[in-house]
Amino acid sequence: MSGRHKKSCRLLRNTKLGGSLAAATAVGATAISLIAAAPAGSSEKVDATSAGALAALPHRATAPKEPHAPAALGKSADNVNAKKREWLPTAGDALKLAEAQVGVSEDSSGGGTKFQKWFVSSPWAERGVQRDGGKVSDYANANWCDMFVSWVGAQLGVKGMGADAFTRTHAQWFKDQGRWGDNATPGSVVFFSWSGSKSIDAIDHVGMVIKDNNDGTIQTIEGNTDNSVKVRTRDKSLVVGYGYPEYGSSDA
Fold first, then answer.
1. Strand pairing partners for 232?
2. For 107-152, how does the pLDDT look when each residue is reduced to its tens digit (9 = 90+)?
3. Most-buried pick from 33, 107, 170, 249 (CB within 10 A)?
4. Which residues fall within 8 angstroms of residue 226, CB to CB, at 6 or more apart?
5. How far is it, in rounded angstroms, from Cα 220 to Cα 169?
6. In sequence order, what are the residues at sequence separation of 6 or more whose Cβ sits closer than 8 angstroms to the Cβ of residue 173?
7. Could you say which residues form the signal peptide (predicted)?
8. Domain range 30-55+88-243, CATH architecture
9. Tens digit of each residue's pLDDT (9 = 90 or more) over 54-78
């Protein structure tokens, strides 16, 4: 078959959902209070449930404590500890983690990946149920291209990555945050439409940019492409746009 994605990641497979789920109201207030509201009207109601295009929970890693400075340097331990440096994951960190997942594949039911299991257990699934109805377990065998991208961001605590199982709302979230554009940069989140449309409403699939090949194509790392995680080469004519997470500098 061609290099195209077998099934649209904008739809969650074999689920007929509707109405609200009473249990969704039990979502922890603290977690939900940290979630950015999904853009109104951006979620198309299809035979699918979608999980909120949400800002990742604030999570910052800090560099290990610096050793006490020698007395000869005239620095007290208090001064050293007061200057702890904040560490932000880089695009290289995100791509290294993503590429380490190459070969992970779904089971015969379309589920079983670590990305789906993580999403089901996360606040984003509960928030998606609140937004669109259905039940959390529907995500267990759902299309997972966006769950893969969201998982990478969540594992590293990437700021501005967002989290979603529905590509269109995730793309709209990036746009609403002012983090949307047309340049393929390493680590950016790339959204595709197999029809070549440039409309967010036509998005079918999502991945991460490894590099711009400067020949009209980009190299990407994608989940749920031929049912597994693979490195791909995609024509730019299929790109709707790019979302830009907030990465740290490689020389920080």
1. 220
2. 999 999 999 999 999 999 998 889 888 899 999 999 999 999 999 9
3. 170
4. 1, 5, 6
5. 21
6. 36, 38, 39, 53, 54, 55, 162, 164, 243
7. 1-22
8. Alpha-Beta Complex (3.90)
9. 333 333 343 333 333 333 334 444 4
